[in-house]
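Q: Structure for this?
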Amino acid sequence: MSSTAEHGPPAARGDRAAALHRLRRSHEQILLGTLARHGTLSRAELATYTGLSRTTLFAIVADLLASQLVVENTTRAAGQRGRPAGLLSLNPGGGLYVGIDMGRHRVRVAIANVAHEVVATGRHALPAPSRWADRADVAIGLVERLADDAGISLAPLRTVGLGLPGPVSAEVTDTDRKGSDSARSRAQRGLVRTFHERFGVPVSVDNNTRLAALAETTWGAARGARDVLYVRLSDGVGGGLVLGGQLVRGTRGAAGEVGHVTVDPDGPPCYCGGRGCLETYVGGLALVRECRRRGTEVSDVDGLVQLVRDGDPAVCAVVAEAGRTLGVVLAGLATEVDPERIVVGGPVSALGEPLLAPVREAVAALTLPAFPDPPPVVGSELGDGGGALGAIAGQMAAVETGLAPN
Amino acid sequence: MSSTAEHGPPAARGDRAAALHRLRRSHEQILLGTLARHGTLSRAELATYTGLSRTTLFAIVADLLASQLVVENTTRAAGQRGRPAGLLSLNPGGGLYVGIDMGRHRVRVAIANVAHEVVATGRHALPAPSRWADRADVAIGLVERLADDAGISLAPLRTVGLGLPGPVSAEVTDTDRKGSDSARSRAQRGLVRTFHERFGVPVSVDNNTRLAALAETTWGAARGARDVLYVRLSDGVGGGLVLGGQLVRGTRGAAGEVGHVTVDPDGPPCYCGGRGCLETYVGGLALVRECRRRGTEVSDVDGLVQLVRDGDPAVCAVVAEAGRTLGVVLAGLATEVDPERIVVGGPVSALGEPLLAPVREAVAALTLPAFPDPPPVVGSELGDGGGALGAIAGQMAAVETGLAPN
């Protein structure tokens, strides 16, 4: 459900052109999927397997060869004469994806090839607060350095995926859009333009926490699952929802904002303007504040983790109550979406079982008793790198479903 | 996300066969979609528009003609010699879908053609409690009578969609399944077999309340919306979730069970085995019970509706509190899934604004303030017929996305 823009000369935008373009993309996906399943095939075999006409097939194969997504090995069978037969296969060293997570305090980058192998990852701290343009410069520099260090050429780059904090709506990637826009949308659109100008490929954008949910589903604690509820506990609380293997974006780009589900309409004020949001009970800042209120001096989330490891009873009680509150909210959402797995990530999840056990108990107690196996609640596996990996997973998912790029 | 079974001789089940079958279906969808867009086309034009080879195209067109989903008109251009050119178009009077909602107290049937026109609907009351086999007999009789009355032949029937109360899991349509099974699954599988044997076409199954959600999205109060949260208030409370135009089924077939989201873990016991479920606060039985507890004699939901219309202050207060409770739960779910619209249906929704206004207020107050337009909360439009219509919408959605039948 990630969206994409090609900034540059606008393509013909008629319905007819769009329909033909979608059809072309869908043929391309059929070809790539067939090669992924069978390994190496001749054009004749590809035509048989896909049912495409020779004209269509040859044109698409030519494009895929030019983009280095597919490679051709020419062989000559024993005793064969004339032009050697070309054998086609996916090029694992060919197509590249770059994923960038532009957080508030750091930039994370990952580079993967078309065979789903992550070939480089990196991180660069940001002096807070940084302007978006400065963060983009840092990210571009980091991509170039990682590629250099790994001896990778960025020439076969297919797309760049961008993870950003806060809500991201679909129209942000429409860089030709006219008319009124929020400051946030304008800033996000500016970033899309910057990365497109530097790398010359389509740029997709989504919320970085949502992308982390997709990364956990692709490579992490929920790999193999189709329906995943993900919550990220940092200073605040965010999340993401994956259903049928696809990231749910929502009508206004705000899906997955579990941190602002109301626990108590008369509860503590939240920075969002509401009251009693989940974040005000289980976010890192809220936990530290509550420990202090009860008389335990805690510096930050790291200090909290240490005190729980030391078995501090007051801090453990605060964490257990937070786990219970989180579990009640997650149980409600799980009753509605019936996920296969619930993943808890973010720095606060380093608290481990003292936090997760009460979450698990609440989920087991408060989801439908008719189903004896409640969804497992597990810690995340990818840590802080999830956003950048998710930005790559989003691009791959778009290719596989024929939804995006271009 | 509806699933489907063809009961009868099992098809080859290898991965290869399945992949080829999916490919064939996807070509079929490309052809049907192209005809839907362009109206009438020759085979040559279809080949140009779709990029399919002549061999593939001719084979698929032959199948579509045989199934009467597509019709051919032969014309001869002025001065043309030889065999007349065939012009192909969708057959609005051809393919038929039957939707059946097997409720606890009545059977509902709808019949629609491939052009999405509903051509007949009917209802038959059931003496409660009825056995499944008896309900199936009533449903089959009703389908036959409706077709007779409308002068429709069931010969071009494509599929039958079945809506059932309670959880429906995907494997129920796998009628060749061996091994352990719940009594519910066995009963559901028996129904699939009965309908398949009578009508000789694939039978898809889903929860009837979920299907009503899809019907409201296709034809009712949420038409045009892609992401819809639906809640049905009857004696109990059920619901359905539509995201990206597709029904969410969930990992165990239990998605949409908003009635069992926990409002208060220490609340009243619920028939599901839990405590404090939403259903125990806003279901019809709960509302009637609460009015009686406060000293107002109310017979049933109809009586409740009448008392609210008469402006009974005690009953209006009970309804307003229930609306508030429902709104808090829906706001939490809306924060997670960010729907375009929230639809409230079922007999209790006849209470109208005295119930809906407090729902709307709570949703506006408790969803993210960063988005000034909360999702609209509206009453359903299709009433009790939604389940049967949804069973048809599910089949059409399956055809359009190439997901199901066969």
